[in-house]
């Protein structure tokens, strides 16, 4: 594989650094990518990664558009170092509607045993008309063009780009692509469209816009563990025409109604230095991270090079569980949703000033959901935060996921009517649900302090004291009603005790 040409090395390295710095690294509402390998493929002619698929021997194959004339391929065992394969996978023809250009492609492995792989590609005729055509293969190397035209808009006058198939099961395939919504070729009119197939991607129908309000130059599509569909797309900043952003949108399972994900840009550079194009998203080995290949074309150049980016930090979207409960609850169940939850399992810690709780059970249901149980026995009152830490120490946090209040102390008096001269006494027990200061003082009905039974800091749990009817000086009180004033975490009360001589 050729390295990038040396006279551009400094400029390209600077651009990679700019892209890396611009890409989000911290956890947020949605995942972000950080630049992983600055340049994984470069040559003296336009080449861009279009699709990556797994192949035998724990390897991967990338399909690469080359000079808008043909599709090449390369293989890798680590998804970062690629070796070109000999030969051409697909090229223009002098007899068909692709006799001018082949600009982009997408590949899926079919569920049809007689048609194991299908490539969709954008073809341009010598008259400048656009079509999405397809080819089939049994080994991923030798491809036979079919006679089917899968997508054509305005008799071919409308721009088409980046066909991306998504298998939906039961022979259903949905094809995402870029088209001009006005039937021409104006970048401001480029939008994401989709069409559906029920015969493993041979015929398509119900073409419609996926995001009618969003300008999108190229698109990539993925399926999430919970069945949602996510599209990634290149887009310019408002008022610009150079794609410097990679954004995303999601649709619920079995739906094609997409909503733009806000809060965090997936990846970005600056329009004055380079243009981003052709994102290709692939789930990295391990099953919880995503890797993105993208083309970066330096300003003033027409030759892109391919780099890669990787999701790193997990994201937390929601905490589902009690949001308010009392200290002392012995079992609190919760569910966390988000993305990039690692395998081996992440760790979860709830924390507040002066306290922390680690769940005693934690199950990784998937890369987007965790369930667990923790104990709130002795938990400090107030607002508790959450930290999730992946196996590689990447973290995400949520603030004030629940509040803990203090349950009232449990106070019991046994024999609060007794005869001290007969050896009787009143036994007092108090159970507190947070460590703190406990005081019990006996007063006469006119407010005179007779005796302090306890006045000290006590831990969470049970405290027992007894009063035998004597004062602090040791004398036995007269018959009558006496007041026991109790102050403790969760308690500020007065109890009556009757003494009979």
- Number of helical regions: 1
The CATH homologous superfamily of the largest domain is named Glycosyl hydrolase domain, family 43
Class from helix and strand fractions: mainly beta
For the report, how would you describe the main beta sheet? 5 strands, antiparallel
In short:
This protein has one helix at 9-22; strands spanning 33-41, 47-55, 59-66, 70-76, 83-84, 90-91, 101-109, 117-124, 130-137, 144-151, 160-169, 172-180, 190-197, 205-211, 219-223, 229-236, 243-251, 259-260, 267-268, 274-283, 290-298, 305-311, 315-320, 324-326, 332-339, 347-352, 355-357, 361-366, 369-374, 382-389, 395-405, 410-414, 417-418, 426-432, 436-443, 449-458, 461-467, 480-488, 491-499. The protein has 501 residues and is an all-beta fold.
């Amino acid at each position: 594989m050729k390295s990038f040409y040396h006279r551009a090395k400094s400029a390209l390295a600077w651009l990679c650094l700019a892209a890396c710095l611009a890409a989000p690294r911290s956890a947020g509402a949605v995942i972000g990518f950080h630049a992983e390998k600055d340049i994984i493929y470069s040559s003296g002619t336009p080449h861009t990664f279009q699709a990556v698929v797994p192949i035998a021997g724990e390897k991967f194959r990338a399909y690469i558009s080359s000079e808008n004339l043909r599709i090449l391929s390369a293989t890798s065992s680590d998804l970062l170092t690629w070796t070109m394969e000999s030969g051409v996978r697909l090229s223009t023809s002098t007899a068909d509607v692709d006799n001018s250009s082949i600009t982009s492609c997408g590949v899926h492995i079919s569920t049809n045993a007689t048609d194991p792989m299908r490539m969709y590609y954008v073809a341009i005729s010598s008259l400048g008309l656009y079509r999405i055509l397809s080819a089939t293969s049994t080994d991923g190397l030798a491809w036979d063009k079919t006679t089917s035209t899968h997508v054509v808009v305005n008799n071919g006058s409308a721009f088409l780009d980046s066909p991306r198939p998504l298998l939906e099961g039961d022979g259903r395939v949905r094809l995402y692509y870029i088209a001009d919504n006005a039937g021409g070729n104006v970048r401001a009119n480029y939008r994401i469209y989709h069409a559906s197939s029920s015969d493993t991607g041979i015929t398509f129908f119900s073409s419609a816009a996926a995001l009618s309000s969003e300008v999108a130059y190229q698109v990539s599509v993925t399926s999430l563990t919970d069945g949602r569909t996510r599209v990634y797309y290149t887009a310019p900043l408002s008022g610009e025409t150079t794609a410097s952003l990679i954004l995303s949108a999601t649709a619920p399972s079995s739906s094609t109604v997409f909503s733009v994900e806000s809060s965090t840009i997936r990846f970005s550079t600056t329009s004055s230095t380079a243009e981003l194009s052709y994102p290709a998203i692939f789930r990295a080995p391990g099953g919880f991270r995503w890797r993105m290949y993208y083309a970066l074309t330096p300003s003033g150049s027409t030759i892109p090079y391919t780099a890669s980016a990787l999701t790193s930090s997990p994201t937390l979207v929601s905490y589902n569980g009690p949001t308010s409960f009392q200290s002392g609850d012995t079992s609190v169940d919760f569910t966390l949703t988000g993305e990039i939850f690692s395998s081996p399992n992440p760790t979860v810690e709830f924390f507040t000033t002066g306290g922390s709780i680690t769940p005693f059970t934690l199950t990784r249901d998937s890369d987007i959901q965790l369930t667990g149980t923790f104990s709130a026995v002795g938990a400090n009152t107030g607002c508790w935060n959450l930290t999730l830490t992946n196996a590689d120490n990447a973290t995400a946090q949520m603030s004030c996921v629940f509040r803990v209040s203090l349950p009232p102390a449990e106070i019991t008096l046994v024999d609060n009517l007794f005869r001290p001269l007969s050896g009787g006494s009143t036994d007092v027990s108090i159970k507190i649900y947070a460590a703190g200061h406990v005081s019990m003082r006996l007063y006469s009905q006119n407010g005179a302090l007779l005796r302090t039974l306890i006045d000290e800091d006590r831990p969470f749990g049970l405290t027992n004291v007894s009063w035998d009817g004597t004062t602090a000086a040791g004398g036995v009180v007269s018959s009558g009603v006496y007041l026991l004033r109790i102050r403790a975490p969760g308690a500020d009360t007065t109890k009556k005790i009757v003494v009979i001589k």
